[in-house]
Amino acid sequence: MRKMENTNATDKYVESKSIRNTTLDSVDYDFLDKIKVIPYLTKDMVLTIDQVASYYEVTVEAARTVIKRNRGEFESDGMVTLRGEELRKFLDEVCEVQNEPHKISEKIRNLTLLTKRSLLRAGMMLTNSGIATQVRNYLLNTEERTEIDTKSWAIQREVGKIERARMTSAISRYVPDSPHKRFAYPNYTNMVYRTIFHKDAKTMKEERGAKDDESLRDMLSADELAKVEELETIITGLVSMEFTYKQIQKMINDRYVKKLESV
Are 205 and 216 within 8 A, CB to CB? Predict the structure, then answer.
């Protein structure tokens, strides 16, 4: 029973317009070129309905039917139909880009062009195509990996909050009171970022596009958060052993930096 559910998991792309739109807005279309070579007509990467049919190895009529039934979706992707002077200019452009005579008959009165986004949309809908099945399986696997990555990030972020609190608590408890103690918190924070990223926290926030009221850590990947957490754990231990800032900095440079460079 479980296997059947997995087999039918990709049906949601066929059945739901909202899921198709959400997926199209979040995925990189370049994977289509890896599944099968696409002979685009122009530099704008447009295709005809015949080419869409060829890509998915279905009849032209099957491709036309899917597009006709869901015309509004394809038009929102940039599908257009050329006629008259627009069509003549396009055919000339195809000839120039491909540096060969027209592959499209000059006798046609109109020509429907689709975008790469439209090509992917068609793959979500065509049910009797092995290539389309590959496309939907790829999308599902990508979605599942993204969900796992998101959960992994969220866990790492929560662990990081705990370790950050431990470090600030250690600074409060073990760093001797002085007029300069308040600088210990940003100094150790910058020690972490300079060691890992070779930049201070302010520069990192600017580069990652974090606003003043946003946490830089929300802009880091799960792997980056893990590195920050590991270094903060080390610093927390050294601060608790009452080493000075300069001593900790030297130990970090002598040991942790070499470890990072060897990875």
Answer: yes
